[in-house]
Amino acid sequence: MARTSPVPGATSPGGPALAVFQQNLHMAWRAEDSTDSIWLACTGDGDSWEVPWNLPYVGTSQQPAMAALDDTLYLAWRGADRDQNIYWSTSIDGRKWEAQQILGGAETAGAPCLAAYHGVLHAFWRGGEYLLTTDQNLYTCVRGASGWSAPTYLPGMASADSPGVTVLGDTIYLAHRGAQATLDDDKWIRLWSSGNGISWTSRANPPDAYSDLAPALAAHDGGLHLAWKSASGPEIWYSSFDGDQTWQPPVRIDAFETGCAPALCAFRPAIGTNELHLAWRGSSLGG
């Protein structure tokens, strides 16, 4: 994370999404205008980005999510304005996308997230917000050969924002901030793991990791990597986990600042290299 540069033409009111597909690093983000449309760009070397292109006829009020599985790139997003439905689409080249489809039974007040695990696509999200109630439980479903499974509640997991998900070896990991109540805004980040995508185990939580937004989680160089916006300011913090019990003490990532959730992704731009890429929207305070 030594090199930093803006992605040309990429501005957004929210955070971005990252995924590796066909040897390129792809980024998706919500447009910074009244269209609420989704834009994408990619890079083959981690430095030079292609001119962004638009995903037509769709809109979102949150940051989108991306994941690659086999020869397909998947994109998921919450609807625009008050539409809390989750939509998804697929592409075989990252540029031309199939017509959007709705993920039945799934509603969210935040952004969904995606991960490829055990040869199938997994989606995760927090519940929706309604006139008199708010659902901060976390949910998941799986897309198999016969389509999407019914949404499943994840016991013990509640969050005021979206989770972050990644796969390390044969294990899928999920990180999320706590839930928000009238007299208790729990911003502490928690970590969970699963060996089958069905039953989940609480793991050692990162020390002194607090955020008011969704954390970013990625697997890289045999370990887990976590980045998050500070709960008390625009600073971006980082820690790594050995996959067992040991977290490294959190450190601030240079002078980077953001007003939104960041994104993390491991990317191999050239033979013999393996880098961890961090993407974030700038802060109104600078950065």
Summarize the structure.
By secondary structure, the protein is mainly beta.
Number of helices: 0
Strand content: over 45%
Order of helices and strands: EEEEEEEEEEEEEEEEEEEEEEEEE
**Ends distance:** 15 Å
What value does the Rg take, in angstroms? 17 Å
In total, the number of strands is 25
Q: Report the mean per-residue pLDDT as an integer.
A: 94
Q: Which stretches of 5+ consecutive residues score pLDDT under 50?
A: none
* Percentage of residues in helical conformation: under 10%
Largest sheet: 5 strands, antiparallel
| Overall shape | globular
Structural class computed from helices and strand pairing: mainly beta
Describe the overall structure.
The structure is a single chain. With 287 residues, the chain is mostly beta strands. Strands 9, 10, 11, 12 and 13 form a 5-stranded antiparallel β-sheet that branches. The two termini are 15 Å apart. It has no helices and 25 strands. Helix content is 0%, strand content 47%. The protein has strands at residues 17-21, 24-30, 38-43, 53-55, 65-69, 72-78, 85-91, 101-107, 113-117, 120-126, 137-144, 147-148, 152-158, 164-168, 171-176, 180-181, 184-185, 190-194, 201-202, 216-220, 223-229, 235-241, 251-257, 263-267, 275-279. The mean pLDDT is 94.
